[in-house]
Design brief:
The protein is of the alpha/beta class. It has 6 helices and 6 strands. It has a 6-stranded mixed β-sheet.
Length: 200
């Protein structure tokens, strides 16, 4: 059993922790962008640096691929955000954080947090592709599924199916919702995912 979360402190800090998490996801992990934000708190300047990094990546294509296919490689790279945003299925007007690609960005954040703690998870999909669990990993003799949610929507049918089918003792969900235990399910806020080792 992991450490007890001081719920009053968590409740008071929760809005600030969520805000910091969103800022982290926007700024990203590139050192120059992080340093710029730390010094200036200027998102426009951070975006310029991110754009310059992406342009440098595109320029590198010509060093590693035949000249005649470089334009196609660039088109492919530029299509990635659109492909990731397909989960939205509709155009969302505005530039609010987490609106486009939020599921993919949140899953990427969760994967980074797991790998930083020495957890190298797998992905599970049912035979008929009707269900999936974002991450499955081993902790001692136990298999632990982890469902990642970008918001406070906590529907996790695939996680429940996986847990029942394989008689899993403990499952995890991470989301923007508060910390809580529900029978064999633990909801760990996204901003606490770096502490997952205390709960498994």
């Amino acid at each position: 059993m992991g450490p007890r979360l001081p719920e009053a402190v968590d409740g008071a800090l929760r809005p600030e922790l969520i805000d910091l998490l969103k800022k982290y996801m926007f700024v990203g992990g590139m050192p120059e962008a992080v340093a710029c934000y730390a010094q200036t708190k200027d998102y426009a300047a951070v975006r310029e640096i991110q754009g310059a990094i992406l342009a440098a990546y595109e320029n590198d294509f010509s060093k590693h691929a035949p000249y005649n296919i470089v334009p196609r490689i660039r088109l492919l790279r530029r299509s990635i955000p659109k492909q990731l945003a397909k989960e939205n299925r509709k155009f969302v007007y505005g530039d609010s954080l987490f609106s486009d690609c939020r599921g993919a960005v949140t899953e990427q954040f969760a994967l980074q947090e797991l790998v930083c703690q020495g957890i190298f998870p797998f992905y599970w999909s049912s035979e008929k592709s009707s269900g999936e669990v974002d991450f499955v990993f081993q902790s001692g003799p136990r298999v632990i599924p982890l469902e990642v949610k970008a918001s406070e929507n906590l529907q996790a049918k695939s996680l429940k199916f996986f847990t029942a089918k394989y008689e899993i003792e403990k499952s995890l969900r991470t989301s923007l919702s508060d910390f809580r235990r529900e029978s064999r399910l633990l909801n760990l806020p996204l901003y606490m995912l770096g502490q997952i080792g205390h709960w498994i």
